[in-house]
Specification:
Elements: E1 3-7, H1 13-27, H2 40-44, E2 49-55, E3 58-66, E4 71-77, H3 86-93, E5 102-107, H4 111-119, E6 123-130, E7 133-140
């Protein structure tokens, strides 16, 4: 794999809309199908800093961050590329954009993602409720620790 993390540009939007929709459908199987609309990527990342993971010319993931809040809002990796270090690379890519501690929310039913964050040293701080279900607020005190 020729993994590269780069800044978002407008020509990425169509591919990112598709990736966001597909990964959400696969990862959030407990939600109604009506929750998955292609254009929600635009709304859900508006005003955020977005970095894109590419393998050659193929977009395989992204991360969106609210730097002023030290908050990671979204991180999505195409199913075919999960468990290959892409998520870890995306998390590392934002270290210059945020100050520690950094936070993110993860839906409790998304058990694969919950385990991924715990493995990386993220600490569960709180539970909350959103329209999509119960979420865990995770916090990372220092640099990413994935090995």
């Amino acid at each position: 794999m020729q993994l590269q993390i780069r800044e978002f540009n407008e020509t990425d939007r169509g591919d990112l809309r598709k990736l966001y929709l597909e990964v959400r459908r696969q990862s959030f199987g407990w939600l109604e199908k009506d929750n998955f609309i292609k254009d929600t990527f635009d709304r859900d990342t508006e005003g955020e800093t977005v970095l894109v993971a590419v393998n050659g010319s193929e977009i395989i993931g992204f991360i969106s961050v609210c730097p002023q809040e030290n908050f990671i809002h979204h991180i999505y990796v195409a199913t075919a590329y999960q468990r290959q270090g892409v998520g870890e690379a995306l998390l590392r890519s934002v270290r210059d954009l945020v100050e520690y501690p950094v936070r993110l929310k993860c839906l409790q039913n998304n058990t694969g993602a919950v385990e991924f964050y715990k493995k990386g040293g993220w600490i569960p701080k709180n539970l909350g409720i959103s329209a999509e279900g119960i979420y865990i607020l995770f916090e990372l005190q220092k640099e990413i620790v994935y090995s």
